[in-house]
Design goal:
This protein is α/β, with parallel strands linked by helices and 494 residues long. Helices cover 48% and strands 11% of the residues.
């Protein structure tokens, strides 16, 4: 993390802030004039800038103007006397994060600087450099079609809609479209619209003014402003609430938007790339997605194949992820034996490329030895594969089940191959409960089913709730609530 710059001609103020921030283990760099800070800005940048408004030579407002022109993501806190409140208003109009009125409380000053620091780190996280774009790997014909489409779109600013199953790599394709576009030198900003609560999504997209709602203590730039001149990637667009769909349509139509609580129209120079795993045409028919927005987004559609459709790419992807995981952990990369590689290539991986990457991370950490055999892979994958093989050699018998006829259900289950028809087991249990006249059978079975699936998902993700929620296709709040309601243990706090 970069240091916090303190710019003030008053040595006592610099000293107080330096000591207070040092106690918080925050690095600082001080300047006695705006001119010195401007000179340092030519070769370096701060994480947060704190500047007096009135100093000999260049003023704090001039420094603010220069910083915002060169580095709009750096929060600037202006120090002002009560008599300079008109100047403070000018500071806000110039993009200041907040102001400190003299004399100020040191603890409140540190708290304000910490808020600005969090904002700075958040913006740094979303404004990722195109140079760090991961490569898209694939030799399958279906992926070659994707590569050709990216090439054809390389000099275009047209809106693109990427469709494909969860985990198939839609964000990687969006990054590649940005990297090979005329906007490559500008920010690429991604937002998963399904991961943000509805009441916060509008602020995330369009930003908000200070005081727009409870907790809005400072002006905040939204993703459209952060992506200015570059590309905004909206993942899981099918989950966007209808009222926000209307606002997004307006931006795509005329290129203008307002911050939440704002009255000044802002111009958006942003290329929008959207993605979804859902059938948007069906959602339009169901009234869950605006038809006019669908047509605005669906200018060019790019369908990303699932891993099932490109299973020949699994070996090259697995080697890549094993190398990448080893590099991150600082260890030697593990190798899959021919038998293990063949085993992986024949697996059903509903989580697609993301699931394969997570599996390779697991192998790097958990598998013994440098050469990984089938027996070293997660046990649930081996059991899944064995069950699939048994199911192909012993077709299930479909027999009507009479309510309360437990013996008949057990016979069907035995004829179906014993242990590879979970539906038959469910029928047996349902028949047993119904014959015993237990109340609320549906609720009891539903809770047992949910608990079993969530437990397996948590085991598969080593207790990580976020990852388990993604695998199950539910929200983080939902899985947290279910874990509490069902009394499930083994989950880690993310």
């Amino acid at each position: 993390m970069k240091p916090i710059w303190i710019v003030d001609d008053d040595e006592s103020i610099r000293w107080v802030l330096e000591k207070a921030l040092a106690r918080e283990n925050l690095a600082t760099q001080s300047f006695s004039s705006a001119r010195d800070a401007l000179q340092a800005l030519q070769t370096d940048t701060p994480q947060v800038l704190v500047s007096d408004i009135r100093m000999p030579g260049a003023s704090g407002l001039e420094l603010l103007q220069t910083v915002k022109a060169r580095h709009p993501g750096i929060p600037v806190i202006i120090i002002t006397a009560f008599s300079d409140l008109d100047s403070a208003v000018s500071a806000f109009q110039g993009g200041a994060f907040e102001y400190l009125a003299k004399p100020f409380d040191v603890d409140k000053a540190v708290e304000l600087i910490r808020r600005a620091l969090e904002e700075s780190l958040r913006e740094a996280d979303v404004e990722q450099s195109a140079a760090n774009t991961p490569e898209i790997l694939g030799q399958a014909p279906a992926m070659q079609d994707v590569f050709r489409a990216i090439g054809r779109l390389s000099q275009s600013n047209v809106t693109v809609l990427i469709t494909g199953e969860s985990g198939s790599g839609k964000e990687l394709v969006a990054r590649a479209l940005h990297k090979h576009s005329p906007r490559a030198s500008q920010p690429f900003v991604a937002l998963n619209t399904a991961a943000i609560p509805k009441d916060l999504l509008e602020s995330e997209l369009f930003g908000h003014e200070r005081g727009a709602f409870t907790g809005a203590q400072a002006m905040r730039r939204g993703r459209f402003e952060q992506a200015e001149g570059g590309t905004l990637f909206l993942d899981e667009i099918g989950d966007m609430p209808l009222d926000l769909q209307t606002r997004l349509l307006r931006v795509l139509s005329d290129g203008h938007f307002y911050r939440v609580g704002g009255h000044q129209s802002l111009k958006a120079n942003v290329r929008v790339i959207a993605a979804t795993h859902q059938n948007l045409e069906q959602r339009v028919r169901e009234g869950l997605f605006r038809e006019d927005l669908y047509h605005r987004l669906n200018v060019i559609r790019l369908r990303l194949p699932s891993l099932r459709e490109r299973s020949e790419d699994i070996p090259i992807l697995a080697r890549h992820f094993l190398t990448q995981s080893a590099r991150q952990l600082g260890v030697d990369a593990k190798r899959l034996s021919p038998q293990a590689m063949q085993f992986l290539s024949q697996l059903e991986l509903p989580g697609n490329v993301r699931q394969l990457e997570n599996l390779c991370n697991w192998i790097t950490v958990m598998a013994p030895g440098q050469t990984v055999e089938v027996k070293d892979l997660p046990q649930e994958l081996v059991e899944q594969r064995n069950a699939a093989l048994q199911a192909t050699t012993a077709p299930l018998v479909s027999t009507p089940l009479l309510v309360g006829d437990v013996a008949s259900a057990a016979t069907v289950h035995q004829e179906a191959g014993g242990e590879h028809s979970w539906v038959s087991l469910l029928e047996v249990e349902a028949a047993r409960m119904l014959s015993s006249e237990r109340p609320e059978v549906m609720d009891l079975l539903g809770r047992q089913f949910e608990a079993a699936v969530i437990k397996i998902a948590l085991k598969h993700t080593h207790g990580r709730k976020n990852d388990a929620a993604v695998r199950l296709g539910i929200g983080r709040n939902t899985i947290t609530r279910k874990i509490q309601e069902l009394g499930i243990g083994g989950a880690e706090e993310d």
